[in-house]
Automatic annotation (TrEMBL):
Source organism of the structure: Trichoplax adhaerens (Trichoplax reptans)
Location relative to the cell: Nucleus, Nucleolus
Protein name stated in the entry: U3 small nucleolar RNA-associated protein 6 homolog
GO cellular component: Pwp2p-containing subcomplex of 90S preribosome; small-subunit processome
U3 small nucleolar RNA-associated protein 6 N-terminal domain span: 9-77
Highest classification ranks of the organism: Eukaryota, Metazoa, Placozoa, Uniplacotomia, Trichoplacea
């Protein structure tokens, strides 16, 4: 280790002698410098070299170079060598290549060396993103323009963007250089949206670059029309440029509203003027039927938040005008409609339910019937019986679940005599569900005492339909007979169950019966 350090220090002797001969540094300063460099050289000779060791050494040499330039411009060999060694040790760290190129460009004033470093890294950089961004920033630096002017003058190349003195404007140089670099970068990295968008920021540093920024935004929609990120960035452009948003497609409205709400309104929640602008945008989008369902939800949420409940019914009508083919849309509409009953007349709510039932297929409309029943139960209880009697005579998809609600309501509000009349008529005149028959059993068993003759009829109906596969209801039937009927008949039910049940159900029945 000591040999390598000594050799490195010996290679510094010409530089140190030059410092002393030209009185750039005193003898004590040079001695301190040698001590410092010795320390850094030993760090670089360790078995495991750390990144921080290179960075500290380079920073020291850069500070030394700056001090020497203040006294006299001197050699830059040590800094260059340190960078070279660092790049050899970490050839795949793009940030180190950028650091080295930046030093060449800004401190050593060597544009060509900076470009060589960046180009060398580009050949092995699979992503190329960091390196392209570094080239872009360096290429648009104002310190580069005088050198370019000089080269163009030597080559006698003229450009149309010249002022009265024949000089090309700084603005022209900035825009033209940035555009060339952007085009080359996109060719190198054609499928990265965020990388492409990173050029927007550099264009915004200069004036009169709207045409270049527009070209980038348009390229997103041309090259990535189906990717969400493209539309999100395009929405940002629309906000920045304040265009005629009536020309935007539906998807663009969605992203535009999201952008405005998240980046403008939420960052200034107390600014009423921004909220008013957002509400105007909602109105425009709805008028053109370009508002998505989620944005209708957001619109209503905002109105609720700022306590403009009086405007919500109008928004609801626009919403259901645009989204009237899905059950969830109608449930949302009717639920909110019912929550603003003080605004609506009863016939308006009835019309809302009627519209929903006309638009939806019968097989999916049962939640609407049930929601209407809930409204009647709380707001129009005198009409509940008439409503339920109507529903149980509709198509089976509606009648079956509503039969259960009718029985439930009757049991809660009428006598057991009325309940028995209801379920007896329904059993006799329509095809009832197993769930309905089980409800009847539960109601009868809650009586004091239960009527075993009625329970026998109900259990016989249930088991005639599911007797081959339901050990549970055979056991319940036996329990009922033992509790309120004739225990001797329970044995008959037992043997009938054994003959009827099949396979595992038969085994489950025997096991359950043994536990009675």
């Amino acid at each position: 280790m000591a040999e390598f350090v000594q050799r490195a220090l010996e290679q510094m002797l010409p530089e140190l002698e030059d410092m002393q001969e030209n009185n750039l540094f005193t003898r004590d300063e040079i001695r301190a410098l040698v001590k410092k460099r010795t320390h850094y050289e030993y760090q670089l000779q360790r078995r495991v070299v750390r990144k921080i060791d290179f960075i500290r050494y380079i920073k020291h040499e850069m500070n030394l170079e700056a001090e020497r330039n203040n006294r006299k411009r001197g050699s830059t060999k040590v800094v260059s060598k340190a960078f070279s060694r660092m790049l050899q040790a970490h050839p795949y760290r793009s940030e180190f290549w950028i650091m080295a190129a930046k030093w060449e460009f800004e401190d050593n004033k060597d544009i060509d060396n900076a470009r060589i470093l960046l180009s060398s890294r580009l050949k092995t950089d699979t992503s190329r993103r960091i390196m392209q961004l570094a080239i872009r920033r360096n290429s648009t630096s104002k310190s580069l323009w005088p050198e370019m002017r000089k080269r163009r003058q030597v080559l006698n190349i003229s450009e149309p963007n010249q002022d009265d003195s024949g000089e090309m404007s700084d603005e022209f140089f900035a825009n033209k250089i940035a555009d060339v670099v952007y085009q080359n970068a996109v060719k190198a990295i054609p499928d990265d949206i965020e990388f492409r968008m990173s050029f927007i920021g550099i264009y915004k540093l200069f004036e009169s670059t709207k045409q270049y920024r527009d070209a980038i935004y348009n390229s997103l929609l041309d090259d990535f029309p189906d990717q969400e990120a493209s539309w999100h960035f395009f929405a940002e452009k629309e906000y920045d440029d304040h265009p005629d948003i009536n020309a935007l497609p539906v998807q663009m409205w969605d992203y535009y509203l999201s952008w405005y709400y998240e980046k403008v309104v939420l960052t200034s929640p107390t600014c009423l003027s921004k909220l008013e602008i957002l509400l105007e945008i909602f109105e425009k989008a709805a008028a053109g039927k370009k508002l998505s369902e989620n944005k209708y939800f957001l619109w209503i949420k905002i109105l609720q938040k700022i306590r403009k409940d009086q405007d919500i019914p109008a928004v609801l009508e626009k919403y259901i005008r645009d989204f009237n083919s899905e059950l969830q849309s109608w449930k949302f509409y009717l639920t909110l409609l019912l929550s603003y009953q003080e605004v609506y007349e009863e016939h308006d709510i009835e019309n809302g339910f009627d519209k929903a039932l006309k638009c939806l297929p019968v097989k999916t409309s049962i939640p609407i019937w049930q929601l209407r029943l809930e409204w009647y139960l709380t707001s129009k209880p005198k009409l509940v019986n008439t409503f339920l009697e109507k529903t149980i005579n509709l198509s089976p998809e509606i009648a079956k679940p509503m039969q259960e609600r009718y029985l439930e309501w009757t049991a809660l509000n009428k006598s057991i005599r009325k309940v028995r009349k209801v379920y007896t008529n329904l059993i006799a005149n329509s095809l009832v569900s197993i769930e309905f028959l089980c409800m009847c059993v539960d109601i009868e068993q809650q009586q004091a005492p239960p009527d075993i003759s009625k329970l026998r009829k109900l259990y016989d109906l249930i088991l005639s339909q599911i007797g081959e596969s339901s050990a549970e209801y055979w056991i319940k039937y036996i329990k009922a007979e033992k509790a309120w009927g004739q225990p001797a008949l329970a044995n008959t039910i037992y043997w009938k169950a054994l003959k009827t049940l099949q396979g595992e159900d038969n085994y489950d029945f025997i096991k359950s019966y043994a536990l009675l």
